Prior knowledge:
This protein is mainly α. The chain is 70% helix and 3% strand.
Amino acid sequence: MHNKNNKQFIESLAFSLILFDSLFVYLSKQHLGFIAPVNIIVPIFLILISIRKGYLYILPPRNIVILLALCSLGFISGAAILPEYGIHRVLETMSAVTAFIIGYIYIRWNDNEKSIYTVLLLVGVVYSLVCIIALSKLYPSIFPIVVKLWAFQGQLIERPEITTDQNFQVFYLLPAIVILATPLNKYKLSIVLFIIISAFYILSALQTRSGILVIIGTVFLCLIAPLWTKTLGRKKTSILPLLFGIGIIILLPLILKYGSNILIRFTSTDFSTGLGRLHSFFYLFEHIYNPLWWVPQGNHELIELTGNKAHSNITAVFLDGGIISLISWIFIFIIPLIKLGKLFIKKKLDNISTIVFIAGSATMITQLTLNVPLMDQVWLWGGAVVAAIEKTRHDTQTNVQSEARITPNPTITNDENIDSKTKFSGVKLKK
């Protein structure tokens, strides 16, 4: 086991770096005076992995490789056509594809549940502590917050920002929350509950409604997942909802007191909040039937109409990469997630694949209301979803072959007329 863990060290490090990217940017910008581009380092790890284990080790299935190439081509062509983008868009595309491959190889070839759980919990604990310290203003010189303003009924309301955009912070808290679905001891349960409570506090302070709703949905999915994946342990399914209900009742006065700004955002209906998501989504269908819009058009027209970029990632992919990127994106992200969901319903997933399904579902729902066509966190879990499908398919085939090897041959007759070749075939012949 020790040797196996060592073999996965580079993969684990690369996976962790992607999850910690916003924290490195946040701290380096504050204390070093420049943005540390940690995502540029990740391709180096990918090259090292390829040298050590061969290029076939890092490649997803052939159809996915082709789709990744087509999707990248769309985004790169958009960078060449649209004045709002430049060479940095090409680098973003390369970074996103690299994150996808890292997510794929980390899940596809890693059977060490403890190692995966440890990485995800570490990410959740670190982000929770950093955000809580920043919001408490205990060490503002070390963990500063950026205050942004938005208007509601003629009144300016402060909205803090920490390691990344307020709406993107949920991507860095989600990975640890999916551990709630796994078999829990008291120690691990305490950490997960701390992260969940912290996530609600942080996202409420950041006033991100989509983040709050996604966390609620993720917790719910974690609690019901053992009904389909028995090895996750079903005791939590009946006990934890009761504890959550009691906790909400006890803390309701504090929730209402400190969550007033997030409650305002739930009741507001201007474009920058609820209606913007809906309008952005339908904006895609207003133009997708026009062949002139099949080449990348960018966000210029939508910004003129609304003052904002598309608050829907599927629309953002279409505007930035054209029809080629959109179709490829659907087959890279949506179709595999549906396939993994079917395997989940059929009770064919192991513990690792189940938490990947939960994380992948939460990430998909979140990105549908945001503009993150090339965000590494989204592509990382997209690769993990594809890996979980391949892993499940391989494990199923292996189990079938194992059962075939250990199943004894059917009983054959003692008929003296059966020749020796027929006896060894294990077939019972009729007289």
